[in-house]
Amino acid sequence: ATLHPQCISIYNLHVIPGTTKHGNEAQLQHIQDYRLAKSGACRFLSGPFGLNRYHDCFAVTYLDGSLEFLDQSESVAVSLPELLLPTPLLYVATCDSFVLQTDNAMLECYRWEGLIRVAL
C-alpha cells in the first residue's frame, strides 16, 4: 500500500522468476484506491484492528493531528484533544491498542474499542 495526500493505493507485487538475464522480474499491479475523508494525510499503518481475523484495516494520521480508520467498507474519523500535530502511531495486536505520542511528549495507549466510541 502507498499513502498519497488524499488516498491510499493498494498494489499487488507479482514476481516472475528467471525472466530476465539478471534474475526475477517484479511487476506492480494496481488493485484499489481508498479515498480519504480529507487531504493532508501524513502517515499510515495497517493491522487487524478490532482483532479482525479476515482482513487488515488502515489507520491514517493527518497534519492536523486527527486520525482516520478505514475498513473495506467504511471509515471513522477520530480527533483527540491531546493531538494537535501528526504523531507516530503504533498498533499492538496482542492487546488491540494504539500507542501514540501526545504534543507534550507523553506516550498514551488507547484501546480500539475506546477510540471508536470517541468517534461515535
In short:
The mean pLDDT is 87. It is built from 1 helix and 10 strands; from the N terminus they run E-E-E-E-E-E-E-E-E-E-H.
What does this structure look like?
There is one protein chain. With 120 residues, the protein is mainly beta. The protein has one domain. The two termini are 27 Å apart.
Radius of gyration: 17 Å
Q: What's the count of strands?
A: 10
Count up the helices: 1
Largest sheet: 4 strands, antiparallel
Secondary-structure blueprint:
Blueprint (H helix, E strand, L loop, with lengths): L1 E2 L3 E14 L2 E13 L5 E7 L9 E6 L4 E4 L4 E4 L10 E4 L4 E5 L5 E5 H8 L1
Antiparallel strand pairs: 1-2, 2-3, 4-5, 5-6, 6-7, 8-9, 9-10
Notable features of this structure?
single chain; 120 residues; mainly beta; 4-stranded antiparallel sheet; 3-stranded antiparallel sheet
